[in-house]
Amino acid sequence: MKEKKRESFRHFMNRESTAGFVFSLPFSIGFLMFMVVPMGLSLYYSFCDYNILAPPVFVGMKNYIKMFTDDPVFLKTIGVTFYFAFVSVPMRLVFALIVALILFKTTKATAFYRAAYYLPSIIGGSVAVAILWKRIFATDGVVNQLLRIIGIKTSFPWLGNVNTAIWTLIILAVWQFGSSMLIFLSSLKQIPVTLYEAARVDGANRFSQFFKITLPLLTPTIFFNLVMQTINGFLAFTQCFIITQGKPLNSTLFYTVYMYKQSFEFYNTGYGAALAWIMLGIIGLITLILFATKKFWVYTEGV
Amino acid sequence: MKTRKRIGGIIYHVIVCGLGLIMIYPLVWMIMSSFKESNTIFTSAGQLIPKKFVFANYATGWRGFAKTGFIVFFKNSMFIAIVATFGTVFSSAFVAYGLARCKFFGRKFLFVAMLLSMMLPAQVLMIPQFLWYQKLGWVGSYRPLIVPYYFAIQGFFIYLMINFIDGIPRELDEAAKIDGCSYYSIFARIVLPLITPALITASIFSFMWRWDDFLSALLYINESAKYPVSLALKLFCDPGSSSDYGAMFAMATLSIMPAVIIFISLQKYLVEGISTSGLKG
């Protein structure tokens, strides 16, 4: 009897539906425990006055209303973050594409070049590079010293000036174009050579080959990169947190850093939770808008 | 014609080389500075090569701060990165097999959930998760940095492995089933060995991400003996704690070494991971 029960249990466990359930169980639990529950919890807190120490007090839409009517810093950070994302991401993609086109031609040294261009994006997100960047653009840093060598005596405060501080962060982001470059390289390799041969027979020069063949066939890759990196651009945290901390005059204050400060430095955790939800909304909206433009410029037909 | 081509080639290499040097100049500068005498780093910031190579910065940096040597931070980072990576890679493979090969109730829903988890960025979850972990009493321990990864919460890796498993012929599964293999032993004995390249790729990326992770350490670890390298470096460079830039650059250089070593020795997997699935380095 016992034997039979064990046998039928084993049989039950080995049914396709049971196995599928068992295999996906870690994710089901993880998704619930580490995403759904926290998001739900924070949705509730976003309608509360809450400072971690005292129990939450329900205040309705107050946090959301405050954001748009009584918090100039919030609007400022949105501006800064949009500026950062919409300048750095296209610049990075253009760089990545240009370098990919240059490195597409294989020579003996190509593997070495590829590595040199790619290395910064491997370590670019680290704290080490962030503190390095801070020293590079300091008043007595590398940039000013190199300028002095070519004859420009200056101690310009790149990080202290409202107009240039954000650009140090943009340059840091553009510097990490390596992984986009690799993606472009691998899609360049997939373009059939016969297309170029046919174009050459028809008398197309290099420029029209690029604009009529290469670029259209790359648009799906460009689109994918644009969406993913714009989202990531909105979420940059470490660089701003370590290099500028939002200074000067909040001209480099990224949304995520503001969210962090509200929650963990000013202890307006309820407000921070509301900021997180607004950010999710913004990201969703931008993704939707990008997808809506897809049909106008992304080439989708098979080759 | 031949000479023209050669001149063109030389110009090409000069441009590409020059750009490449600009790209890696900041890193070379940091490494070189770590060998300069600490008080000369900024007076000689324009020169790349140190007048005299000294190793004193490494000795001072290694002593660490707050009575904690840097070796402790390295051990902490290693521990977190390795344990979390093992969890995320294994659990992702487990889940990916179920989603790729079994039909069951709720499968479609879980697919959507997986895509959502790929879209939902860590920064949006920062405050929600903090509040939740606080309720669970996890703040101050390594649990928030490790436990979630054992539940396959990185949709990217599941996605990567599903793609890989889809490339394994189903006939293999069928043959094993006829021989009396259960789903579980098919996973352990057939699928897992066959997706080794995907496991390696995922391990590399996971390890580097965990190693670099600064935000969650900042949120959850509040005891200096438990700091990972990323957080320790940040405190090292905070005004007031020390202005020994030599030691700071020395430790910063050491902190990027694991990534650089991985980059040099496992470049093939990195490049594959990025170009086939768009994982970001």
Helix content of chain B: over 70%
Q: How many helical stretches of chain A?
A: 14
Largest sheet of chain B: none
The largest sheet of chain A is:
2 strands, antiparallel
Oligomer: heterodimer
How many individual β-strands of chain A?
A: 2
Name the helix and strand elements of chain B from N-terminus to C-terminus, one letter apiece: HHHHHHHHHHHHHH
Give me the Rg of chain B, rounded: 24 Å
Strand content of chain A: under 5%
End-to-end Cα distance of chain B, whole Å, is 42 Å
How many E strands of chain B?
0
Summarize the largest interface: chains and residue counts: A-B, 94 and 93 residues
Helix/strand/pairing class of chain B, anyone?
mainly alpha
Envelope shape of chain B: globular
How far from one another are the termini of chain A? 63 Å
Topology:
The complex is a heterodimer of chains A (303) and B (281).
Chain A: H1 2-13, H2 16-45, E1 48-49, E2 57-58, H3 62-69, H4 72-104, H5 110-123, H6 127-136, H7 142-149, H8 165-175, H9 178-189, H10 193-201, H11 206-234, H12 238-244, H13 255-265, H14 269-297
Antiparallel strand pairs in A: 1-2
Chain B: H1 2-33, H2 56-62, H3 70-101, H4 107-119, H5 122-136, H6 143-146, H7 155-166, H8 170-178, H9 183-194, H10 196-212, H11 215-220, H12 229-237, H13 245-265, H14 267-277
Q: Could you explain how this protein is built, in words?
A:
The complex is a heterodimer of chains A (303) and B (281). By secondary structure, chain A is an all-alpha fold. Chain A has 2 domains: 35 residues, no CATH class; 236 residues, MetI-like (MetI-like fold, Orthogonal Bundle), CATH 1.10.3720. Chain A contains 14 helices and 2 strands, in the order H-H-E-E-H-H-H-H-H-H-H-H-H-H-H-H. In chain A, strands 1-2 form a two-stranded antiparallel ribbon. In chain A, a hairpin with a 7-residue loop joins strand 1 and strand 2. The N and C termini of chain A lie far apart (63 Å). The model of chain A has no long low-confidence stretch (mean pLDDT 87). Helix content of chain B is 71%, strand content 0%. The two termini of chain B are 42 Å apart. The mean pLDDT of chain B is 86. Chain B is built from 14 helices and no strands. Chain B is mainly alpha-helical. The interface between A and B is large, with 94 and 93 residues.
